[in-house]
Amino acid sequence: AKARGRNGYRFYAPSMTGEGVERLRLETFLRRSLEKNEMFLNYQPQVEIDTGRLVGVEALVRWNHPELGLVPPARFIPLAEDSGFINQLGKWVLDEACRQMMRWQAQGLHVPKMAVNLSVKQFERGSIAGMVADILKETGLEPQRLQLEVTESVIMNTGDALGFINDLHAIGVGLAIDDFGTGYSSLAYLKQLPVQTLKIDRSFIKDISTDVNDEAIAIAIIQLGKSMQLSVIAEGVETEEQAAFLLRHGCKLAQGYFYSRPVLAQDMLERWIDH
Ligand code: C2E
Ligand code: CA
Ligand code: CA
Ligand code: CA
Q1: What confidence score (pLDDT) does residue 129 get?
Q2: Mutate to test the pocket of ligand 1, among 117, 204, 260 (most ligand atoms within 8 A of CB)
Q3: What DSSP line would sit under 238-272, residue for residue?
């Protein structure tokens, strides 16, 4: 902020300080990003630990702005959520991800499942299931090959989350609870949700061989998944040691740098077509 005048009166309001200006600039750029083709998707493989078999990919959005360079999602997703742009962006991501599944298929690569992240704001707009159903119909992707990832906090903070999730379930798509263990969902509530997958948050995997608490949490989530007949996938797996630990404790699926960083669609084709 700049101080103006002898009385120390600030010309800029607190929200107009450096950070505020930067935010506005980002927001302005963000609104144009889709029409300017600056958004693209990366895909991160999800694998079966003991066989290395590809079971799916997660679509992760990337923004490459000519001036700013590559802006991380952690910086622009919250902005997109605040400004409402997430509805357009989320729809674009879903459409592109579904189309990519069909392209891979035509190129001879069978990717069993596509996972796409949903934001809380996309639930506030009403008919999310209608939007998903339209995209599936347009692209021709079978509903059971799409898995929507929703964080625990989204579920707990959305008025009628159960209603929306039931609607999505009704059209046949899979549902995963993302970042599981970081929110506060009660087990009683979890039991009511028609979800098939729990994703163990990366923060519990990171120190798995050194932090006994993280180990205990990871094991508890794996057990919970087992007793509720849900599949459990560990995210952020970076080492062989972590993978071995997970396998030993009954977690069959993983995603993380140990297997692959998020990559372009073309790289998926080159790396996995022989598998
Ligand atoms: P997320 O859904 O939990 O996605 C996993 C994040 O962990 C990704 O970060 C991924 O690149 C990163 N990651 C994967 N494996 C490893 C690993 O082994 N080590 C480490 N350190 N990181 C790993 P990314 O792509 O930066 O995305 C961050 C978050 O942004 C995502 O977290 C998700 O919440 C959000 N996001 C990304 N794409 C979308 C999207 O299309 N829609 C919405 N609504 N949110 C998205
Ligand atoms: Ca996710
Ligand atoms: Ca996650
Ligand atoms: Ca996360």
Answers
A1: 94
A2: 117
A3: -SHHHHHHHHHTT--EE-STTT---B-HHHHHHHH
